């Protein structure tokens, strides 16, 4: 495996994994924009990831040749055996296991270890080299249970029935997960959607993930119309909460669902009234648990707080290597990566329960 300006390249197999620009042959771990790019000549991915790429990029830009590979199935390219395993990040997300001449490398993409009702859970595989993210690789990041954060949202809705609650969430993965968690918590009323998140919710349902009663936020209201949707839950891209779009809602409570809401300073700067710590990435304890589970003597770190994770790995007798791949990060809706916290931000992390 070789690190190039385009990303990870499997030399004997002749393909890239999650390349940052169009290439002849790509294996794509999942549909977020910092991993899936349009314009490749050939793309190998799970069927759900290919469907997400077609929905986001168009039929003609999701790969001239699209090769679906189900979880647990394998194909061989130039002697390299490729197997996709669930990563637990979003629908269709996969770890890429590569076997060649008796050695195994697992490229995990992005992953989480929590149960998610909208996607298959992470499956660890023992390997010689494990390639990991480090988005939340600081000991201060210990995410609370998802059910706790959803209960906080529902308690706020009950406390302020005259206000709409607008939850900022990424369009792919986080929006659908929040909806599914709300359903599990007993919310059987409609969930209202900003137009930018509707398409992928429809796709999730077409791919077999039930989300219940979903409705668009009403459009075309005349000037002077009373504020709408008091007591309701609205899901929108994180950037939408600060736009004129939100002004027609009834005194909106600005919420945000992200692991970054652990950092008080980020919540304050974004004007978030109700931060919800719901992450689609592994926290500190889960990262370390994963390293124990895969039993790899060598770990490569693609992005995030690689310094902290590499140090922790060294203390456990594991060789760590920071790859510094370009363009990786916690995806915003425009695809721009979000930087890991500074030391000053980390000092302002809100306390949360350990896992």
TrEMBL record:
Record-listed E.C. numbers: 3.1.-.-
Pfam families the record matches: Lactamase_B
Top-level taxonomic group: Bacteria
Sequence ranges of Low complexity compositional bias: 341-355
Family matches, as InterPro entries: MBL (IPR050698), Metallo-B-lactamas (IPR001279), RibonucZ/Hydroxyglut_hydro (IPR036866), Xnuc_lig_assoc (IPR026360)
EC class of the enzyme, as a word: hydrolase
Keywords: Exonuclease, Hydrolase, Ligase, Nuclease
Region (Disordered): 328-355
Molecular functions (GO terms): exonuclease activity; ligase activity
Residues of the Metallo-beta-lactamase domain: 2-170
Keyword Transcription: no
NCBIfam families assigned to the protein according to its UniProt record, in alphabetical order: Xnuc_lig_assoc (TIGR04122)
Name of the protein this chain belongs to: Ligase-associated DNA damage response exonuclease
Organism: Muricoccus vinaceus
């Amino acid at each position: 495996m070789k690190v190039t300006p385009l990303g990870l390249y499997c030399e004997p197999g002749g393909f890239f994994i999650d390349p940052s620009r169009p290439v002849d042959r790509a294996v794509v771990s999942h549909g977020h924009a910092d991993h899936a790019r349009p314009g490749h000549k050939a793309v190998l991915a799970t069927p759900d990831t290919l469907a997400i790429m077609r929905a986001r990029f168009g039929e003609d830009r999701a790969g001239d040749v699209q090769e679906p590979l189900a979880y647990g199935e394998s194909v061989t390219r130039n002697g390299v055996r490729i197997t996709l395993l669930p990563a637990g990040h979003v629908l269709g997300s996969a770890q890429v296991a590569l076997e060649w001449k008796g050695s195994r490398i697992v490229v995990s993409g992005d992953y989480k270890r929590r149960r998610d009702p909208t996607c298959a859970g992470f499956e660890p595989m023992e390997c010689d080299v494990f390639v990991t993210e480090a988005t939340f690789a600081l000991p201060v990041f210990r995410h609370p249970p998802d059910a706790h954060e959803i209960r906080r949202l529902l308690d706020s809705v009950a406390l302020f029935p005259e206000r709409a609650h607008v939850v900022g969430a990424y369009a792919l993965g986080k929006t659908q997960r929040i909806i599914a968690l709300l359903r599990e918590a007993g919310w059987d009323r409609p969930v209202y959607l900003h137009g930018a998140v509707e398409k992928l919710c429809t796709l999730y349902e077409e791919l077999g993930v039930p989300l219940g009663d979903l409705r668009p936020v009403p459009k075309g209201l005349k000037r002077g119309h009373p504020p709408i949707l008091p007591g309701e839950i609205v899901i929108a891209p994180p950037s939408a909460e600060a736009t004129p779009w939100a002004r027609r809602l009834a005194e909106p409570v600005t919420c945000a669902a992200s692991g970054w809401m652990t950092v008080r300073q980020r919540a304050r700067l974004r004007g978030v009234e109700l931060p919800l710590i719901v992450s689609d990435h592994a926290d500190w304890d889960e990262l370390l648990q994963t390293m124990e589970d895969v039993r790899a003597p060598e770990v490569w770190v693609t992005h995030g707080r690689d310094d902290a994770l590499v140090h922790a790995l060294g203390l456990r007798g594991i060789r760590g290597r920071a790859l510094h791949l370009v363009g990786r990060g916690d995806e915003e809706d425009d695809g721009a990566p979000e930087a890991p916290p500074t030391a000053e931000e980390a000092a302002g992390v809100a306390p949360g329960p350990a896992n």
